[in-house]
Specification:
The chain is of the alpha+beta class. Helices cover about 20% and strands about 35% of the residues. Strand 4 and strand 5 form a beta hairpin.
């Protein structure tokens, strides 16, 4: 599969990571509400009703069972203020490892609305590797959880890639 990378402008032939630029919560804000939010490529904060909502981007990797490949997503999770404080305090420490609890706040392509949204996750931080790893909890009857742990077909992976590259 060939595609032009939106970040570097070069043509690639491998599978792209399906990166979401912002948490769905941020995308739902009005322009006025966005004046009370900060968004970078890896962290988002939204000041709302006297409290700050925190979001972190990480990598969720989905197994493709009929290929020797995985499909990577750059998804967002919500974290507690305590977890974000800990994340910031240890950001420069390349030996730091920990796991936070978070809620997935990205609706993934080719799933019914809210199937992948607000699912409990572990956010595994290993600063020697870089971006955190997102692992959905195995409990629940969501089709997304089932497919995350059992895998998806190459055909389905290509449909998801096409849905984000050519919306």
């Amino acid at each position: 599969m060939k595609y032009i990378c939106a970040d570097c402008g070069q043509e690639h032939e491998d599978w792209p990571a399906l990166v979401f630029k912002a948490p769905d919560t941020y995308l739902g804000l009005t322009e006025e509400e966005r004046e009370h939010a900060d968004l970078t490529s890896e962290v988002c904060s939204i000041d709302k009703d006297g409290e700050t909502l925190w979001y972190l981007r990480g990598v969720l990797t989905q197994y493709v069972y009929d290929a020797c490949q995985y499909l990577d997503y750059g998804v967002w999770v919500s974290l507690s203020q305590e977890s974000m404080k800990d994340y910031y305090e240890h950001y420069e420490d390349k030996e730091y490892k920990t796991t936070y609890f978070g809620w997935l706040v990205t609706n993934l392509p080719n799933y019914p609305p809210n199937t992948s949204f607000a699912l409990p996750t572990n956010v595994e931080v290993d600063n020697s590797k870089g971006i955190p790893t997102i692992l959905p909890h195995q409990k629940g009857d969501s089709i997304f959880i089932k497919e995350f742990y059992e895998g998806i077909s190459t055909e389905e992976a290509l449909r998801r890639i096409a849905a984000l590259i050519n919306p």
